[in-house]
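Title: [Solved] KilA-N domain-containing protein 3D structure

Original question kept below for reference.
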Amino acid sequence: MAKIIKETIHAKGIEIGIYTTDFENEFISLTDIARYRSADPRITIHTWLRGRDIVEFLGLWESLHNPDFKRSEFDTFKSEAGTNAFTFSIKEWNDTLKGKGIITKSGRYGGGIYSGSHRLTGKR
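Solution (posted by the thread starter after getting help):
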């Protein structure tokens, strides 16, 4: 297993965690960003992820940067996005659609929800 390199960037006085294992595919902490808006960042993130525009953006990102992404299954997922009954599960996104751009990490320090900030395929 590759060594995980953790770094921190600072924006408007907020420490935002970034980690990588290969210096090419970096992931930025959405949890740290959401702390700026709310005492409970999980609610902020899950509310944000329910929106149709965000789901469409994530699908586009995956389509461009992830050759394993299941686009046909994504169409069903996307059609439900934004409705009152729609819930977004990162586990479902990754398991069903083979998504790689948004992940969860467990742990007291450095745990949270992360989003890919660079390409995953080695191609531009």
